[in-house]
Write a structure and sequence with these properties.
Helices cover about 70% and strands about 5% of the residues. The chain contains eight helices and two strands; from the N terminus they run ααααβααβαα. It has helices at about 5-25, 30-55, 60-85, 100-115, 125-145, 150-165, 185-200, 205-225, and strands spanning about 120-125, 170-175. Strands 1-2 form a two-stranded antiparallel ribbon. The longest helix is centred in the N-terminal third of the chain and has 28 residues, at about 60-85. The chain is globular. The N and C termini lie far apart (about 45 Å).
Amino acid sequence: MKKHIPNTITCLNLISGCIATYYAFQADYSMALLFIVIGAVFDFFDGMSARLLHVSSPIGKELDSLADDITFGFAPSAIVFSFLCSFHIHLPFLPFLAFIMAAFSALRLAKFNLDERQVLGFIGLPTPANALFWGALIVGLGDRIATLPYVMYIMLAGILISSYLLVSEIPMFALKFKTWGWKGNEVKYIFLITCIPLLLLLGVSGLAAIIAWYVILSVIHDKFY
């Protein structure tokens, strides 16, 4: 019985992604973001439960990637697509370019399954981080973004940058601690400490700022440490 627990949790992640996608197409971005967050919680606990119960399996690994591509690839792409559809544009195909992120999320997840370097950190931007960035950005700042000149092209540039980061070779730190001391964990503690004021000052959009700060810190850490 216990061998089915992790896969059940993974399926709950996938279902959360499907619900998030439904709300995205309804332009209810707050609910879409909520279910992406719920999916992220399930994603955290499926791996943990598999390790605790010693029931890791190849099927679980593949199922996890499929669920993640729905929740953290397709759902945020649907949010961006729906947001772009709210603008009156002469080229109606442009919003569909949002789904490039779903394709690159799938590529990243396939790469992650095969890449043995990603033990203590990540190579490229994790799909949950990308999903949370776009969801929080549109929920928190959607009205302001909509007033920007050339908003469509700014959004498309953001899609391309995200897609690149997902499959890039940029090392990014993970919040995994071998020891709790400052030495060797400087970037992690700096990140955690700065997250608090960002959330307090910016609210939901602070989550998008945190993801952007995470990418910047990772690049700085890779260059100078």
